[in-house]
Amino acid sequence: MTPAASACTSSTLACRDCGRMIDLCAFCERVECAVASCHVCLRLALGETLAHPHAHGG
Amino acid sequence: MPTEGTKASRPRAGTVARTGVPTCQVDDNLGAVSQRVREAGWNACVVVNRERIVMGLLRAEQLGGDPTHSIREAMRPGPSTFRPHVAITEMAEYMGAHKLENSPVTTSDGRLVGLLVREDAERAARELESTTTQPSSK
Q1: Tens-of-pLDDT digits for all 138 residues of chain B?
Q2: CB of A16 within 8 Å of any CB in chain B?
Q3: What is the ipTM of this complex?
Q4: What is the pLDDT of residues A4-35, one digit of tens each?
Q5: How confident is the model over B52-80, as pLDDT tens digits?
Q6: Looking at residue B40, which CATH number applies to its domain?
Q7: In a domain, A57, yes or no
Q8: Are B86 and A46 in contact (CB < 8 Å)?
Q9: Rounded to whole angstroms, what are the CA distances from B29 to A38, B95, B97?
Q10: Within a domain: residue A1?
Q11: Is B98's Cβ below 8 Å from some Cβ in A?
């Protein structure tokens, strides 16, 4: 892997809710954010989408 | 955008957002746009296309860039946008926690509704809290 490709894929920021590694905060778009959220958790928190139950649950 | 139900009267991102936010297009010149934005008393400008679809955002940092650059070169492309129905309390809380001064509010197809300014969101959230926590006079 070239250094450039490595830089593109490395992320050191974690979503504060689910722990997923993200490149930047979905809310403020900063690479360094103490309360970073991923897109999924942010949309759930703001009520823009709903968490769907497992398709084969039960 | 019309809403209904018991919480329909509560302020939301779309009702608190300032609709008169300055806009520009990608081929405009940054120097001219920055001057127009400053004269209008703003520190942000939303980059839109002819259909008012949000293409980018210029916050104070970008507006202070090289005035010979085009907006295309200077803008933050594809900024995070929020839907008009999002509750103002959530937006105020997030904007405060992230120290974000403003956020674009758009329809689901990306059309600009307005720019939500943090102080407006926090004021609306405080007013809502004070009206919902007041003791009943009965």
Answers
A1: 566 666 667 899 999 999 999 999 999 999 999 999 999 999 999 999 999 999 999 999 999 999 999 999 999 999 999 999 999 999 999 999 999 999 999 999 999 999 999 999 999 999 998 887 766 554
A2: no
A3: 0.80
A4: 444 455 668 999 999 999 999 999 999 999 99
A5: 999 999 999 999 999 999 999 999 999 99
A6: 3.10.580.10
A7: no
A8: yes
A9: 34, 29, 33
A10: no
A11: yes
Number of independent structural domains in chain B: 1
DSSP conformation class of A44: H
| B70 located within any domain | yes
Q: Which domain holds residue A37?
A: 7-45
Chain B residue with minimal CA distance to A32?
B98
Asked if B84 is an interface residue toward chain A (Cβ–Cβ < 8 A), one would say no
Domain limits at B97?
13-133
Give the DSSP letter string of A14-36: E-TTT--EESS-TTT--SS-TT-
Structural domain contains residue A18: yes
Indicate whether A50 belongs to any domain.
no
How close does chain A come to B62, measured CA to CA in Å?
14
